[in-house]
């Protein structure tokens, strides 16, 4: 039986080493900026996106080492989105992963600049990564750019901030759009960039695309379920209003959970198109998605 827990643990260690090598030293001028960048990247979370990137490369017959730079680029880009997402002008969060957010520790201006610098670094790391001859030399940068821009994460964030559930006539469509672009696009990029680094065929890359999108959607719906549980717990203490507009408030808990399971099922089916033992990490990650506790 595949040991997902140890796979994720060893994967995080490898990813963290790659990130440490890619990041500027905290003492390098401008030291305050580089300290802020490293503060946000380390110690980090589960590193699920870069681990998927590496697993995708291995699933198509590539080597983990071939995908490590691409995996680091994905995680660095993800970190930039978190820094900006936490800013007072956006979600205005004071905590991230149990620690004060970047703008709380370093000030709002430095947090904006740290996010900008980290985003630029993600493209620098991707640009330095060699691609197999099957793909154009700029393919990894292109994948990351498509996931990060106005048709990706940034577009999803804009619609998330603008979304008014009271005035919206199509709440389900809008929430699906936000989840697809704000969350699933980076999962898609992680799977595709890993596949490209591993020299995937076009059919394999199509399967990895479907895997990444469905896994990302399941991840976000599960986040909604977890967030709703926390909101309800807090509401019981303060007897106030619970939750934000998300999959749970639109579909209900049971329907949202079933929706997540359908996305997981689709992700597993896509992974199985790749065949072979190399798909075990991808399948196990998908199975674990709806059982996350945090």
What is the global morphology? Answer: globular
CATH fold node name: Farnesyl Diphosphate Synthase
Uncertain spans: 233-243
Rg: 19 Å
Mean of the pLDDT scores?
90
What percent of the residues sit in helical stretches (DSSP H or I)? over 70%
Order of helices and strands: HHHHEEHHHHHHHHH
How many distinct helices?
13
Number of strands: 2
Description:
The chain is mainly α and 294 residues long. The chain has one domain (4-289): Orthogonal Bundle (Farnesyl Diphosphate Synthase), CATH 1.10.600. Helix content is 71%, strand content 1%. It has 13 helices and two strands; from the N terminus they run ααααββααααααααα. It has helices spanning 4-22, 31-41, 48-59, 64-85, 102-106, 108-127, 139-148, 153-162, 171-197, 202-238, 247-251, 253-272, 280-289, and strands at 95-96, 99-100. The chain has a two-stranded antiparallel sheet with strand order 1-2. The chain is globular and about 50 Å long. Mean pLDDT is 90; it is low at 233-243.
């Amino acid at each position: 039986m595949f040991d997902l827990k140890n796979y994720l643990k060893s994967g995080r260690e490898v990813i963290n080493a790659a990130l440490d090598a890619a990041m500027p030293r905290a003492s390098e001028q401008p030291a305050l900026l580089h300290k802020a960048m490293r503060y946000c990247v380390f110690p980090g979370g589960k590193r699920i996106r870069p681990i998927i990137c590496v697993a995708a490369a291995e699933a198509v017959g590539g080597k983990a080492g071939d995908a490590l730079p691409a995996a680091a680029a994905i995680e660095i880009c993800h970190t930039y989105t978190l820094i900006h997402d936490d800013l007072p002008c956006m979600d205005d969060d004071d905590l991230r992963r149990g620690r004060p957010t970047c703008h709380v520790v370093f000030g709002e201006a430095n947090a904006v600049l740290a996010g900008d610098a980290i985003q630029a670094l993600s493209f620098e790391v991707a640009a330095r990564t060699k691609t197999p001859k099957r793909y154009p030399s700029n393919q990894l940068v292109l994948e990351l750019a498509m996931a990060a821009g106005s048709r990706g994460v940034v577009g999803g964030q804009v619609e998330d901030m603008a979304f008014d559930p009271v005035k919206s006539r199509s709440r389900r469509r809008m929430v699906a759009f936000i989840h697809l672009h704000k969350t699933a696009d980076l999962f898609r990029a992680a799977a595709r960039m890993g596949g490209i680094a591993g020299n995937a065929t076009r059919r394999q890359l199509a399967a990895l695309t479907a895997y990444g999108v469905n896994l990302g959607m399941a991840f976000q719906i599960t986040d909604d379920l977890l967030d709703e549980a926390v909101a309800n717990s807090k509401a019981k203490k303060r007897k106030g209003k619970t939750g934000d507009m998300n999959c749970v408030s639109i579909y209900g808990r049971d329907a949202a959970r079933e929706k997540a399971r359908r996305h997981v099922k689709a992700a597993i089916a896509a992974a199985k198109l790749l065949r072979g033992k190399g798909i075990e990490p991808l399948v196990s990650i998908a199975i674990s998605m709806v059982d996350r506790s945090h």
